[in-house]
Specification:
Length: 170
């Protein structure tokens, strides 16, 4: 569980306590001030997906922190926070123009993470739709991502399709 004050299953809104639903969730664009929370979510995602190799996770966070510290202000990394419940990011990368996507840049969705207590409430869908809309408004013709097994049904329901990408560990 990510260590921040929004871990509860309920949220207080207008002095009344209500169950956290997509109506009660606020999505806002993250700033550099949100970096500790973004790193906490990325850590939680890595542990959940790849196991608890603390050395590898710490190495990743140590490299990611300075990367995001420059990428966010430079406009290469954009993130959104769902309050309460999670976050999602898109990275804009330089890319070789191709037949289907002739622009020299790509939008890659990264680090979409919903805290376990908030899953199944549509928060991941809203974050993904927010990122897609942001990309569409900026003229991207395609959005790319690597899907976890848990996220694949959501992405497929939004129209994402598998591609021919492969990889080789060196």
């Amino acid at each position: 569980m990510v260590g921040h004050p929004l871990q509860e299953l309920t949220v207080v809104q207008h002095n009344t306590t209500v169950k956290a639903s997509t109506d009660a969730v606020t999505i806002r664009q993250a700033t550099l001030a949100d970096l500790p929370l973004l790193l906490d979510y990325r850590r939680a995602m890595a542990v959940e997906m790849d196991g608890a190799d603390e050395v590898a996770v710490n190495r990743m966070i140590a490299a990611l922190e300075p990367y995001l510290r420059s990428a966010i202000p430079e406009g290469r990394w954009h993130a959104w926070i769902a309050e309460p419940g999670g976050c999602g990011s898109v990275e804009i990368v330089q890319w070789v123009p191709g037949r289907l996507d002739p622009t020299p840049r790509r939008a890659w969705i990264h680090s979409l993470y919903i805290e376990p207590a908030f899953r199944g409430r549509g928060i991941g869908r809203r974050l993904t739709q927010t990122i897609i809309a942001w990309c569409r408004e900026r003229g991207f013709g395609w959005v790319y991502l690597h899907a976890s097994n848990l996220g694949r049904p959501l992405y497929e329901s939004l129209g994402f399709e598998p591609s021919s990408e492969m990889r080789l560990k060196l």
